[in-house]
C-alpha cells in the first residue's frame, strides 16, 4: 500500500501542550505506546535461472539491486514480550510529489509460521543490524490519519548480541535518547490501499493536507529530504 | 575660539597695481572721491583702532558673561557673522517695507471709495486684481458711552449661556455614566449566570462560525450527524443581562416510552420524566430537558435503524412505534412491547398512568435501552481509537447498527423460553402426580450473572450482553432428564434447546414444539425404564417404540406393553394388546397408581 507522511519536531517543553491540543482535535485520549523496532538488512532477491535467461535474451540492463533495510515492529506497552511482530518494508519515497512524502510500503503481521520462516532467513542471509525504542510514545487517530508522537531511544550496547527476536525488551531506563535536546518526533500518516488509484490517493492527500492546515499554528508539518528516507543500503 | 588659519608663504608682493586700479578700488569702497580727505582718513584710522580696542574689551566682557548672549548683540567677528547680520537687517527692512506698502494700499483702497479717480492709480496692481475698488468703506463712530445696564445684561446672558452649556455637558456625562453602569450590571449578571452554568458541570464553549457568542454543549461526544449538531445551543443575553437559551431549545421535549400491551389493553408503561412547570424553569433545568430530549430522540432513531434489519426477529413498525412480540405463540395472549417517542408537552402523556401490573417490566426495558445506548457510544469511541485500515475502494462508510434492541429481545426470548419450559413441565408434573410416580423436578430460572465484582457500568452492561443459559431437571426415580436452553446474540440468534435424555443421549432441538415431543418421548422412556426395573426378569424395553416386551416365558406368556405420554393432551397411558390404563389431567383418569396398573395389565392373559 501507499503511505503519505508528514513530519515535525516538538520541543520537550511543548510536549504536554501539543498532546492536549490533539486530544481536543480528535476528541479522544492519547493511546500510550512503546514501540520496539528491529532493523534487518535484507539482501536483494536473486533472480531465478529462467528469468535470467529471459533478460539476457532481451538484452535489457539489469539494475544491480541493492540490499534494503527491513523493519520488525511491535508495541510492547500492553502485552510485553507476547505481542506479535509486524514486518515492514519501505521503498524510496516517490520523486514527483513534493508536498508530502509518498512511499510504497508493505506491512504484514507475522504469525508464528511466518516468524519461523523469518528466523530461517535470518540464519542465512538477512542480517540483524540494529534496534531502537520509541518511548514515551502516544498515538492519536483522526478519521483516517494516524498521528504518532514519540522520542527515539537507542538501546545500550550489547543488546541484540543474542537472538533479538526472543530477547526481553530493553529497559527504558538504560536507553539513551538519540536527540540530546529531548525533542519529540511528530509523525502523521495516512495509508491508501492501492497507490495507483488516483481517486483514493487524492482522498488521502486531501485528508493529510487538511490536517496540516488545521494544526498550522501549533505544529509545523514539513517534508524532509526525500532521499534521507531511502531504505536501500549503499 | 581661536581660529587657526594657514596662510601660504607670503611672497614678494607684486602688488604693483597702477594708480588707476587703486583709484577704482577706492571708488568702489568709499564712494566718490569728493568725500575723502586726509582728515577723514585719519579719523577713520583712529576709529578703527578704537573699534579694535573696544571689540577686544567686548570680548572679555563677553567671556565673563554667559555664553548664551545673542550673536546679534555682540559685534560680528567673522565674515559669516557679518553677512548674517546683513541678511537679517535686509530681512527686517524688507518686512518693514512690506508693511508700509500694505498700509499704503489700505489707505488707497479706502480713499477709492471717497475719491475714486484720484486714488485709483495709487492702488498697487496686486491689490487691484484681488479686490475690486471702492469696496472698503469707513464710518466714523463716536465713542459710545458706557452702558451699565447693557453690560450687566451681557454678563448675565453670557453667564447663562455658559451655564447652559455646562449643564448640557454634565447631563450627557451623567447619561453616559448611567449607560455604562447599566452595561456593567448586565455584563456582571450575564457572566455570573454563565459561571453558574459552568459550575453545574455544563461545558460552555465558543460557537463555531459565530464570533463573540458563547454556547453550551449538552450533546454527547459520540453522537453522529444530526444529533451532534443539535447538541450545542447558543447562550444569549436578554435586556436585563439574564442568560437565555436560543429559541427552540428546551421546548418540545420528547421522551421514549415503552408500553406493554396484551391484546388491546395496555398492561404496563414506563415512566416519563415530569416537566417542571413554566415558572420554575431555570436555565439549568432547560438545558437538562434539552439533553434528555436529545438522548431519547437519538435512542429512538437508533432503534428505528436497527428495527429495519431485525424484521426476522419479529420487530415491526406500527405507525411510528417500534413493536415486537414477547411471549409464547400458544399462550393465546401475546404480550407486545412497543417503543414510542412521545412529546412531553402533551398533558395526557404525562399524566400518571402508574399502577399497572407490568409497569416495572416496561420501566426496566426503557432503562436497559438507555444504558445500551451509552454502552454503544463507548464502543464507538473505542473503535475510533484503533488504527484504521488503509483507504480502499470498498470501504463501507455507513455507521454500523448499534445493538440496542437485540440484547433486550434476547433476554425476553430467554425468559419466554423458560416460561414455556416451566409450563410444560408443570403439566407433566400434574400428570405424573396423578399416576403416583416418584419424581423430582427442578424449575428453570434465569441465571443472573454475578455482579459483585462489576466495578463500572461497562462491566454491568457486558454482563447483560452475555448469552443466557438456564436448565431444568426432571428425574424420575433414577432417570434424569435435563433440559438446557441457551440464548445468545451471536450466531443462530434464538434459543438453543438441548435435551439430555435418561440414557445419556443429547438431543438438540430448535423450538418448543419439537422440545415437547422430545420431552414426551424421553419421559415415557424413563417411565418405561422404571417399570422395567420393577417388573423383574424377562422384560426388555425398546426405546424407540416405548415398548416393553417379554419373550415367551415359562408360563408361555408373551407380553407387549406400550407406554405413551402426551403432555399437550395431558395423557399418560400404559397399554397392552387388550387392556389399557390411562391417567389424564383433564377428563377421566384412573385411580390406580402406576405399579398397580402394571400388575393389573400384566396379569391379564395376552
From TrEMBL, chain A:
<dbReference type="GO" id="GO:0003712">
    <property type="term" value="F:transcription coregulator activity"/>
</dbReference>
<keyword id="KW-0804">Transcription</keyword>
<dbReference type="GO" id="GO:0016592">
    <property type="term" value="C:mediator complex"/>
</dbReference>
<comment type="subunit">
    <text>Component of the Mediator complex.</text>
</comment>
<dbReference type="Pfam" id="PF09637">
    <property type="entry name" value="Med18"/>
</dbReference>
<dbReference type="GO" id="GO:0006369">
    <property type="term" value="P:termination of RNA polymerase II transcription"/>
</dbReference>
<keyword id="KW-0539">Nucleus</keyword>
<dbReference type="GO" id="GO:0006357">
    <property type="term" value="P:regulation of transcription by RNA polymerase II"/>
</dbReference>
<dbReference type="InterPro" id="IPR019095">
    <property type="entry name" value="Mediator_Med18"/>
</dbReference>
<dbReference type="GO" id="GO:0070847">
    <property type="term" value="C:core mediator complex"/>
</dbReference>
<comment type="function">
    <text>Component of the Mediator complex, a coactivator involved in the regulated transcription of nearly all RNA polymerase II-dependent genes. Mediator functions as a bridge to convey information from gene-specific regulatory proteins to the basal RNA polymerase II transcription machinery. Mediator is recruited to promoters by direct interactions with regulatory proteins and serves as a scaffold for the assembly of a functional preinitiation complex with RNA polymerase II and the general transcription factors.</text>
</comment>
<keyword id="KW-0805">Transcription regulation</keyword>
<comment type="similarity">
    <text>Belongs to the Mediator complex subunit 18 family.</text>
</comment>
<protein>
    <recommendedName>
        <fullName>Mediator of RNA polymerase II transcription subunit 18</fullName>
    </recommendedName>
</protein>
<keyword id="KW-0010">Activator</keyword>
From TrEMBL, chain B:
<protein>
    <recommendedName>
        <fullName>Mediator of RNA polymerase II transcription subunit 17</fullName>
    </recommendedName>
</protein>
<feature type="compositionally biased region" description="Acidic residues">
    <location>
        <begin position="57"/>
        <end position="68"/>
    </location>
</feature>
<dbReference type="Pfam" id="PF10156">
    <property type="entry name" value="Med17"/>
</dbReference>
<keyword id="KW-0010">Activator</keyword>
<dbReference type="GO" id="GO:0016592">
    <property type="term" value="C:mediator complex"/>
</dbReference>
<comment type="similarity">
    <text>Belongs to the Mediator complex subunit 17 family.</text>
</comment>
<comment type="subunit">
    <text>Component of the Mediator complex.</text>
</comment>
<dbReference type="GO" id="GO:0003712">
    <property type="term" value="F:transcription coregulator activity"/>
</dbReference>
<dbReference type="GO" id="GO:0006357">
    <property type="term" value="P:regulation of transcription by RNA polymerase II"/>
</dbReference>
<keyword id="KW-0539">Nucleus</keyword>
<feature type="region of interest" description="Disordered">
    <location>
        <begin position="44"/>
        <end position="80"/>
    </location>
</feature>
<keyword id="KW-0804">Transcription</keyword>
<keyword id="KW-0805">Transcription regulation</keyword>
<dbReference type="InterPro" id="IPR019313">
    <property type="entry name" value="Mediator_Med17"/>
</dbReference>
<comment type="function">
    <text>Component of the Mediator complex, a coactivator involved in the regulated transcription of nearly all RNA polymerase II-dependent genes. Mediator functions as a bridge to convey information from gene-specific regulatory proteins to the basal RNA polymerase II transcription machinery. Mediator is recruited to promoters by direct interactions with regulatory proteins and serves as a scaffold for the assembly of a functional preinitiation complex with RNA polymerase II and the general transcription factors.</text>
</comment>
<dbReference type="GO" id="GO:0070847">
    <property type="term" value="C:core mediator complex"/>
</dbReference>
